[in-house]
Every structure is written in structure tokens, then in C-alpha cells.
Specification:
By secondary structure, the chain is an alpha+beta fold. It has a domain at about 25-150: 3-Layer(bba) Sandwich (Chalcone isomerase), CATH 3.50.70. It has helices at about 1-25, 75-85, 155-160, 175-180; strands at about 35, 40, 50-55, 70-75, 95-100, 115-125, 135-140, 145. The strands form two sheets. It has a five-stranded antiparallel β-sheet. The protein binds heme C.
């Protein structure tokens, strides 16, 4: 009797612990979530692995606006696969968020710091869903869902110029040596773009 009770208690305890562990690891396991044919905005990405920031990077001749910071994040489980293999696994998900840059504020006198988010873009590797394997989504601050962007808007530039598969590893200083070590880094794609 006692043993049965203990076994039952152990099962309940494990279930409770399992639940706690699962929610704690949500950010680690982040995968693309869809609603119909749209991507659901990934919420917890600030707890993913941080790859790098750009300031005022401008790779599109027509884009002229205030200089923004771009902060890039990738799901932790996908990052670990990349570190082990130099390749991105299926269901990899990346976020680049755009934040305004400010100079005057508090004690700051020169340089720039980051302020409000003005938007974010998401990239997924999901060949089960997208024949072109990689797909791209833009989110305004209030958007919860986004349809995949047309191929010409995002996919093509990543195809032509990203150094590892579709990811711009040439701009992520800790990933670049890993891609080079595994031979997945395409040096020629690092060359400056001829538009
Ligand atoms: C003209 C080239 C170009 C186009 C078009 C483009 N990107 Fe990118 N993308 C880049 C570069 C360069 C980076 C490197 C990081 C940065 O800008 O801070 C990047 C980085 C990213 C990242 C971070 C992960 C990675 O691949 O390195 C995401 C996510 C992303 N872009 C999404 C998009 C989406 C969504 C669109 C279309 C709305 C888009 N991009 C259009 C050049 C482009």
C-alpha cells in the first residue's frame, strides 16, 4: 500500500517538475509556430542566443532613414547544432530587431545607445513547409501574425550574399570561425554586393 502511494506521489512529483522544466526551456526549444499560412510572432526571442548588432547598416540602395540598431538572435537549440556542425538544422529560427539609436540622454555625450523597437524581421529554415527552404517575415510592433514575404523582397539577397546557407555569418564574429572550420562558409559571398 505504502509503496503504491509512494510510486503515485513520485509520478505526480515528476509530472510537476517536468512541467516546470518544460516551461523554463521554452526559449531553448523555440521553433516556428504557424497559424494557417502565417507565422506567429516569436515572443521570447530576447532570451535566445545573441549573434551581433549592426548600427545603421544599409545594404539596400533605396533605404534611407535614421540609423537604427539591428540586433540578431537565434534559437538556442539551433545555435548549439551550428556550433557542432557548421550547419543550420531544419526549423531554425532567427530574429533581427530594429531599434532606434539615440545620443543625448542621461549622462551620455557621444556615441549611441539603443531605445525603442521599431520592428522586427524573422527568418526560418523549414523545407517541409516552404519549397525554397528559407522563408522571411516582417512584423510591425503590433503585428501578431505575418505572411511570408515575396521571394524578391528578402530571400534573393540572402541567397546571393549570406555567407553560410542563408545566414549573414560574415557579420556575426563568433559564428564566422565556426563556419570556416566546418567548410560551410562561402568566402565569395562575403564580397561586396554589385547591385
Ligand atoms: C539587400 C539584402 C537583404 C535583403 C533584401 C534582406 N536582408 Fe535580411 N539581412 C541582410 C544582411 C546584410 C543581414 C545581416 C545583419 C544585419 O543587417 O544586421 C541580414 C540579416 C537578417 C536576419 C538575421 C539572420 C540572418 O540571416 O543573418 C533576418 C531574420 C533577416 N535578415 C530577415 C530579412 C527579412 C524578413 C527580409 C525581407 C523583409 C530581409 N531580411 C531582406 C540582408 C538583406
Amino acid at each position: 500500500m505504502n509503496r503504491v502511494f509512494l510510486a503515485g506521489a513520485a509520478v505526480l512529483l515528476c509530472a510537476a517538475l517536468g512541467h516546470a522544466v518544460a516551461s523554463e526551456h521554452d526559449a531553448n526549444d523555440a521553433k516556428p509556430q504557424y497559424s494557417g499560412d502565417k507565422l506567429v510572432r516569436p515572443e521570447g526571442y530576447r532570451e535566445w542566443i545573441y549573434l551581433s548588432s549592426g548600427l545603421g547598416m544599409n545594404y539596400s540602395p533605396s533605404a534611407m532613414g535614421p540609423e537604427l540598431f539591428t540586433n540578431v538572435f537565434v534559437a538556442p537549440w539551433a545555435y548549439r547544432e551550428f556550433v557542432a556542425t557548421g550547419k543550420w538544422p531544419e526549423k531554425s529560427i532567427f530574429v533581427v530587431e530594429d531599434r532606434e539609436a539615440q545620443t543625448k540622454g542621461s549622462i551620455n555625450r557621444t556615441g549611441h545607445f539603443q531605445t525603442d523597437r521599431v520592428g522586427m524581421a524573422v527568418e526560418v529554415k523549414d523545407s517541409a513547409r516552404f519549397p525554397d527552404k528559407w522563408a522571411y517575415f516582417g512584423f510591425g510592433n503590433d503585428d501578431k501574425l505575418s505572411a511570408a514575404a515575396p521571394k524578391a523582397a528578402c530571400w534573393q539577397c540572402h541567397e546571393d550574399h549570406a555567407a553560410v546557407e542563408h545566414s549573414f555569418v560574415q557579420f556575426y564574429p563568433t559564428l564566422k570561425p565556426i563556419g570556416q572550420k566546418f567548410g560551410t562558409y562561402h568566402e565569395h559571398r562575403e564580397a561586396s554586393a554589385a547591385h
